[in-house]
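Can you give me the bound-state structure? Components:
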Amino acid sequence: MIEEPAAKTRTLEQFDAELAASGLKGFWRIDTRTSEPRTAVQPYVWRWPTLRRHLEQARELIHVDRSAERRALQLINSGLSPRSATTHSFVTAVQLIKPGDVAPTHRHTPTAIRFIVEGHGAYTTVEGEQLIMDEGDLILTPNWTWHDHGNESDGEVIWLDGLDVPLVLALDAYFFEPYHQERQPVVYPPNDSTRRYGAQLRPFGHRQTPVFSPQRAYRWRDTYATLAHLAALGEADRYDDVAVEYLNPSTGGHALPTLGCVMQLLRPGSRTRAHRHTSSAVYQVFRGQGYSVLSGQRLSWARGDVFALPPWAWHEHANASSSEEAILFSINDVPAMEALALYRDQEYPEHDGHQPEDAMG
Amino acid sequence: MIEEPAAKTRTLEQFDAELAASGLKGFWRIDTRTSEPRTAVQPYVWRWPTLRRHLEQARELIHVDRSAERRALQLINSGLSPRSATTHSFVTAVQLIKPGDVAPTHRHTPTAIRFIVEGHGAYTTVEGEQLIMDEGDLILTPNWTWHDHGNESDGEVIWLDGLDVPLVLALDAYFFEPYHQERQPVVYPPNDSTRRYGAQLRPFGHRQTPVFSPQRAYRWRDTYATLAHLAALGEADRYDDVAVEYLNPSTGGHALPTLGCVMQLLRPGSRTRAHRHTSSAVYQVFRGQGYSVLSGQRLSWARGDVFALPPWAWHEHANASSSEEAILFSINDVPAMEALALYRDQEYPEHDGHQPEDAMG
Amino acid sequence: MIEEPAAKTRTLEQFDAELAASGLKGFWRIDTRTSEPRTAVQPYVWRWPTLRRHLEQARELIHVDRSAERRALQLINSGLSPRSATTHSFVTAVQLIKPGDVAPTHRHTPTAIRFIVEGHGAYTTVEGEQLIMDEGDLILTPNWTWHDHGNESDGEVIWLDGLDVPLVLALDAYFFEPYHQERQPVVYPPNDSTRRYGAQLRPFGHRQTPVFSPQRAYRWRDTYATLAHLAALGEADRYDDVAVEYLNPSTGGHALPTLGCVMQLLRPGSRTRAHRHTSSAVYQVFRGQGYSVLSGQRLSWARGDVFALPPWAWHEHANASSSEEAILFSINDVPAMEALALYRDQEYPEHDGHQPEDAMG
Amino acid sequence: MIEEPAAKTRTLEQFDAELAASGLKGFWRIDTRTSEPRTAVQPYVWRWPTLRRHLEQARELIHVDRSAERRALQLINSGLSPRSATTHSFVTAVQLIKPGDVAPTHRHTPTAIRFIVEGHGAYTTVEGEQLIMDEGDLILTPNWTWHDHGNESDGEVIWLDGLDVPLVLALDAYFFEPYHQERQPVVYPPNDSTRRYGAQLRPFGHRQTPVFSPQRAYRWRDTYATLAHLAALGEADRYDDVAVEYLNPSTGGHALPTLGCVMQLLRPGSRTRAHRHTSSAVYQVFRGQGYSVLSGQRLSWARGDVFALPPWAWHEHANASSSEEAILFSINDVPAMEALALYRDQEYPEHDGHQPEDAMG
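Here's the bound-state model for the whole set.
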């Protein structure tokens, strides 16, 4: 089939044309060489000073109201252009909310998470529950829940958004609806769901197993206490050092069915081994400084920086300090990949698990 | 078959005898009238002053060591004699541990729980994790885990034990093994599992779903905060007022596969409606005073009292105070009954859900 | 505590008496030696010629109607007297139904299975579905389902019943109700559930996951085809040779939550290795002849014989023929033991997995 | 923000440019009107005479070997160009295999199904199991299983392929590997898995719960018997008449985690009500003739025709014959949509559930 006489080639070309006219395409001239995932996602780092400076500009230029519902900067992975996405399956943004802001209420089928980078006292209201934000907290906004943001405190708050919009769009399942008022009524006391579900208890006799965590906020104080406990015990993973995932207390599974959230403590001086997996991730540096080697490129990072890990890209992390902890928050698409039986991973097989590298950051 | 001629009766009697000689028994003269569960379990209340006085006597008489591994008083339901059991499926006891005591290490297939009634500072060590006790805490000792108790503080601690020994014996599955030393080594820091699992987090990428909760202790402070939150919201159950069950954070299911544990707040002045279920329960009054109506008998109760609820017995509860909360801790066999598809319940259908009653307590 | 001075002994005796008067019992003089399950269940074999002869007598003596609802002979394990039980958790019986019999309709919380030993053409109706019996079939009667038996054919049918009555009684959960008529209406075509669920299909969009299998009958033809297929491939288990369990097609789990059913083909000349488990079992020889070694006793068996395996008893099986298959049907309590986390097993560690034995059968 | 003075507009344009240079994009000028999924998938019908004629041409032109591994015609949805896809999440093709063909062995992360449209006697070998094809059968090729096709019979076979390639590509998870030989060794007897799992049995004591069905073939004879049984009972769904889904016998869940397969019998004269759902589907007419109304367009269909249903498109079906059954096989992405919590559906609310329509087919 590969080296055909000219007559046959002509015949096949004619056949191809006939097929195309019938909405068909021959499936025989196919690439049958061994192949691994190719991705348009680029490894990339967004620097905090830049992000912060642009947020400050946006604070002056953008008035949040019905005509501009959010004051957020999406982190655009250039490889995915013209899609607005940070990896192929989700988009992240940094968002600033200042005293007095009211970001109007809406709901959509994409699921969102918020990770609070700086400040405290602003809120997100999700389905009638007002969740007060504090640095290091994680807040969930499941698929199709009404939500709005506001700030009745006297300080600014900056957070990282993560939304599975690219995944939802790829599946043609994007629904959006504005609320008929700017703010939804608050029907529960502040932080209700954490107080309800945070202690491994459940109303007796009323088991429910929602796929979205009914607990909507996870507090930094608790998260850090757990990380510090595990770090003190030396319970480290070879690829992620000390890392924990946020869970759905009703099932013990992932907090959300599409997005996973991880908080990771790299102990002073630690350096992990490289591996890769079919899931992608976006990391935000919450504490400390260090570097990661992504696809052989070293990206150094410091407090506030955000970087994108493409799927099936080798990666390893290092804390550059021998005395201070480094802490990375990250979002990934592990739950989706597992649910579809597409999650695979592999350890870097050479050089004691470390990639040869070219400096980049 | 019921009124047979004498000849036939003689024939049948002879046949019965022949069958018996062959290890057989005719199955035809059977009671086919509608019937509901009959139980030997009696509703009963053990008064705290009595329990406490006997514990004090035991404190003087019993020296805890290899020859007397525990200083505990089993609560014996007279209807179950000669079995040592509080209900047909589990046994409860009150146990006192004084400064310096070491209750030796062993393990067994019965699963145990401890609910701390008074005092603080003693410990249970379970599989290398030392769990420090405080009033109102719940501690789990799953099936076949090494455990010992001790008290290095300067005060006494009293707790309620619950063990599914009768169930395990009924299933011919009782294994027991002493440890080769009095105390097992402590290999984790104090309260490790609560610090590890108490914040809805899990080591990233390492999902396990054990049927026994990996969290071994549930703190009163957290339990009460949740109850108070739900009570403030008025989220009450018609039969149990404000009641929460302890969960396994790895699965969102019952903390243990055979025994269930519940903490229940009866709001000031509250009175619940009657129902019954195939599960049995033992309650300990942790705060306040009130009464319960069990099978039409009123049992008044106060702090520390323990009472037994037979299976399929109507019951309802009331807080006698119009200003103070009443709080009941209870153990039940709901997880076992559900697992075997034998759980059934029914609301009391008359008199607005309240039983006519005879005073008893 | 063990060798006490007389004064102390008197004091303790007095204390014991005081405790008993208060519904209490000291828990300190306890046996803390290593122990394994003790059971009252005896290994025992009921011979088919005896069973059959007694069934024939019963056929003449017992007229099945509202006064004698069933014509069944329970297999009584003498060790469990005065309980009517074959093992500690379930009872088995052989039952004969002759042309024209109508065994009236009732329901109860014990779950039943029927294994058809001889004949064909009788029926059991379960919740409106008439299940026609044929030799080697298994029929399920889940907890609380209306059921009656009858025979509109012209031949006798004999089956083996298994019911978890002892377990349900131990849990105080026995409910019984007669139907208001002798026969319930038949609302589905014969063998409806097998035709509905037997092909790994389900009505699109209507998933349900009942804990009791919605398929009520499993046909010998299918069971044998599967066994023969696996036997031809040599896919044998070291303890059971070629053995399959009946499943719930809605969940892939056990067909029933309390009782397990197994069909087992011992290939010509095969001899399995010994093991033991906390589950008990009752076997009926469906084809062939051979022997089993139970707790060191050899029990030879032939077509129709029934034998009981106590929990935690060593056992191994052998087909005595070098040319014919031997086939054993068995009932066990594995699902209950697993659900309660009490299932344990162990391989016989010596003599290449074979027990030294005393002849018995 | 909407009507800005020119100066502000210029400022914002400049800001946008600065953001773009930093890999950022302002998220404020967003469409916040209510919206529902938009899809590029077009409703379309491929006619069987056309498909068959082109397959016959391909039979003459294409020699199946290492240079042309398959003789298949992909059904291209023009709305998705330049992607080769039938809906946004999967691709279908018709494939012809003639006597003597050997389609070489490979594996890939896309999951495939084959539905046999015509003929019998060809085979697919999946992981060492040779599955013999017969008209109406469904054969599964899970993610990453070695598979090859061949035909040692003397007749041609035509089947419909379905693969989740677009989904796997959207998730950047495409792996492909050729086998080192043309054919993989056959290590099981023909149709092993159906014989092993087809009777609701499992090797005793060896539970496994793979997310891909271990049964690899579902036979038309069994499928039709189930449909006919349900049809005779009138157990019809309002949207699909009598429809069954293929299951994974190990779990009772979908046979595959990404693709669902359904066989649907439209009884003579039946006409279903319209609904829509976020899942897409491709139907092949296996028996009979009728029409479907998709997004208000009537598509008539007959034996062998294939048609595509876009996500969130209203649709209803009718059997045009008052005496003959019509039978539709279909593939959908329901399992993926459910796993990601993106499945939603809606009944057509007007005109008794029927769309006003324009004739198309």
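A couple of observations. Chains C and A do not touch (no CB pair under 8 Å). The helical segments of chain C are 6-21, 48-61, 165-170, 192-197, 220-233, 334-339.
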